[in-house]
Amino acid sequence: MSKKWRDELEKVLKDMELGDPDIESSAIVRTDGLVMASALPKGADEGLIAAMSAAILNIGSRALSELAKGELEKIIVSGDKGDITIMGVGKEAVLSAITKPGANIGLLLVEMGRARERVQSLLKAM
Fold it and tell me: Disulfide check for 19: which of 32, 72, 111, 113 has CB 3.0–4.6 Å away?
């Protein structure tokens, strides 16, 4: 992926984070776990976060498929220090957001939905 495309995807992440102050960091990764773009804090292991996001999405998708429950929409992993929310972006990418404890999930899902649409458009144009 060219620097231009990565910059465009990172702008989507930054805009999403501006729309929801509870988002601490975010990333767009391929379903094979490789990072496409990220807005992660300094010192964060980008590769590890990408691999885990892709793995969680793949396991969730497989579980839904095996149980005949349709296509995956989102996965929310909640912890006492915050949440990780993951959405599929078509068949090739994953959008992941890490939020503060007590984040407004409704606002988060709205912002992630907007970002997902923009990412889908960018990926189609690539």
Answer: 111
For residue 105, what is the domain's CATH number?
Answer: 3.30.450.30
Looking at residue 43, what is its pLDDT? 82
Share of the chain above pLDDT 70, in %: 99
DSSP 8-state code for residue 93:
E
pTM attached to this predicted model: 0.90
User: How far apart are the C-alpha atoms of 61 and 47, rounded to whole Å?
Assistant: 21
8 Å CB contact between 20 and 44: no
What span, in angstroms and rounded, lies between the C-alpha atoms of 125 and 71? 24
Q: Which domain holds residue 73?
A: 3-125
What are the structure tokens assigned to 81, written together?
A: 């220090």
* Structural domain count of the chain: 1
DSSP per-residue string spanning 19-79: H-TTEEEEEEEETTS-EEEEE--TT--HHHHHHHHHHHHHHHHHHHHHTT--S---EEEEE
